[in-house]
Amino acid sequence: MVFFLFRGVDSIIGGRLRRGFGLRVTLNCAVGLLAWGLASSALAETIPLRSAELRVEESAVVFNADYGLNLTPSLEEAVERGVPLHFVLEWKVTYPRWYWFDKTVLTGNTQYRLSYLPLTRQYRLSTGLLSQDVASVKEAERLIGRIASRPLFDRDALEEGQRYTFAVRLRLDTERMPKPFQVTALGSRDWNLASSWFTLDFRP
Asked: Residues 79-90: pLDDT tens digits?
């Protein structure tokens, strides 16, 4: 069962929305920007979302996406000099309350660590306890940006018929970089990679 399917080119603005399986789904970009407090739209658009899909596989709700991740020359140089780069795919499920702020009912994230191995001249991409060596930055970008059947939560964790908002984004975690690089990253587009919060409303 597909909850939501989106396909775009460089941005979710103007993307087509498919409705199906009795679920009311709406793009809610403006509300998402306010709700999650994005500091700068310029920095938030540096990882475009090309496609996204939220669906049920057996009893789990899984997420598929294709992000156009491209490291800047500054970041490529940093990782080749021994600075590991940490990326995080983070998501939330909330439901609205007319009398107070929206309530967050589910949260989660997936961590990625990209490092360089000078002896073999390869890159190592780690996710949790799993790691693999890749030959190029482009291959690492593809592996991080292409989310395939990522389990998020059990469908039974949500109340049937209740309207929820799902929000997700992919970003470079600059707070895990060495302090000198954190200072360099402040306000610099070259050192800040992040997608916009992609949001949608749905009823399970």
From this structure: 999 999 999 999
